[in-house]
Structures are given as structure tokens and as C-alpha cells.
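pipeline stage [seq->struct] | target=Olfactory receptor 688 | organism=Ailuropoda melanoleuca | residues=325
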Amino acid sequence: TLHDMDTTLSMTNSSRFQVSEFILMGLPGIHEWQHWLSLPLTLLYILALGANILILITIQHEPSLHQPMYQLLGVLAIVDIGLATTIMPKILAILWFDAKAISLPECFAQIYAIHSFMGMESGIFLCMAVDRYVAISYPLQYPAIVTEAFVIKATLSMVLRNGLLTIPVPVLAAQRHYCSRNEIDHCLCSNLGVTSLACDDITINRFYQLALVWVMVGSDMGLVFASYALIIRSVLRLNSAEATSKALSTCSSHLILILFFYTAVIVVSVTQLAGRKVPVIPALFNVLHNVMPPAFNPMVYALRTQELRVGSQKVLGLGANVSRK
């Protein structure tokens, strides 16, 4: 321990000492058996990639799916692939190969990507809610309002919004001084997990993250639920039972996903604040929150949207026919 005291003293003396890498410890409290989680997580990741790629191919393949509603689904599929790929390969490397070290730039890049993709997912849900609102409340004007140009503009504005507003998160994290501790009790680089290792004040980091999440996700959430309230009001005014059920079935799949996504955001935020006693719960939630929506979004849509279901069966059928030839 004298040696430890010496190193501590030398670190204090050279207070500009900066750690060269972080160590991702994996899921806190279950290090001994966390490798058993690698199988379900791998399956979830493969499912997320496969299902989203299938949706993209189906939308590309089927001329009847070249409509704004499905193009937005295509954008959501790309965001989902990005979100899952940002975190899963590293988590699996930790669980399988014990590759726990991560360089500082890689870690800050991961923080940036997770925040950007999460914001984009939320933004695309908002675009989809607006699309459904216009389709159901103003069916005659819908083709003129929601055009391909609308989808491109909406997508670009979401990419810009999240791409730019997220920049301060990793920049502020990189400006902190990491002088002694470098073990992150998690399997991904979360902003609060990383900055809590800093030796200097992190108030601004915590403040910016909270402001970002609540302003961006909070405003999206408010507008999404407002859109659905208006949609439900319009649907209840429809005279034909058939039109009502069709409108409700389209919107219910959206609502399932949106409720799941925003509930998860709130649960992750709350457990991170309260998760001092059982740290594995917020950590596991955080992982699942990044990989469950990408795996389940395409399934909910493909199962509940007839055109997509038929289209994806055709694409898979084509694959079967080609292999027979």
C-alpha cells in the first residue's frame, strides 16, 4: 500500500496526468455471469439488423410502398441500424473477448452517436405522427402536403437538429480532466458514466444533458401525443365504421412503438437518477433501450401493416425462387 500511496502522491503532484483509455467493466454487479447475456443480446442484434434491412429492401422493391409513410419507416430503419451498431459490437466484444479497454476518442464518439441516434429516433416518430395526422384529418390535401420533398426536408432537419445540438455533449465531456479513475461500471460509454470519473466539476455536463433530453425528447413527446389526441378526435368523427377501424389500426402500431420508446426514455432517466443501490438495473435498461426498439420497430410495423407484410413476403419469396433456380 506504500506503493499505492506513492502513486497517488505522484498523481496529485502531476495533477495534469490524464488517463489514456477507459475500461468498460461490463454490467455492474453481475460480472461473473454477464457472458450468459451475450447470446440473447447477439440474437437481438441479428434480429434488429435482419428485420431493418428486410424493411429497407421491401420498401425499395415494391413500387406501391414508395409513399411518405413508408419512406419515413425506411428512415427509421436506417436510424435503428445505426443505433444498434453504435453499441452492440463493443458490448459483444466485452462479453466474448473481454475487450474492455476503449480509447477516449472512441468513447466520446460513442456518446455522440448514441445521443444523436436517440434524438433522431424521437424526431422520426414526430414526423410519422404529423404524417398520420394530416392523412387522417385532411385526407384530400394529404398528397399535396406530405410529398417526397416533405420527407426529405423533415429527415434533413432531424439529422441537422440532432447532429448539431448533440455536439456539446462529447465536447464538454472531452474538456473534463480525467486524472485517476478510468473504470466505467457499464458496457457502453454513457455521458454521465464517463463524466462522473472526472476530477473537476461536471455541473455543466449534467445540466446540458438534462436540458438536451428534456428540450428535444420532451418537445417531441408533447407534439407526438398532441398529434395523436387530434387524430383520435378526427377518427371519432368519421362516419363509417370501416374507415374508423382502418385509421385506428394504422395508428395503433405507431402508438405501441412510441409509448414503448418514450416510456423507456423516462424509465432510463429515472433509474439512472435512482440506481445507486442496484446499479445493474439502469445499466441493463440502458442497453436494452438501445437495442430493443431497433429489433421490435420493424416487427410491429411488418406485422400490423398489410402492405409491408405482403411486400416482405414477396422479397423473401423472391429469394426462395432464385435459390431454386
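stage status: PASS
auto-comment: The chain is about 75% helix and 5% strand. The CA atoms of residues 212 and 218 lie 9 Å apart.
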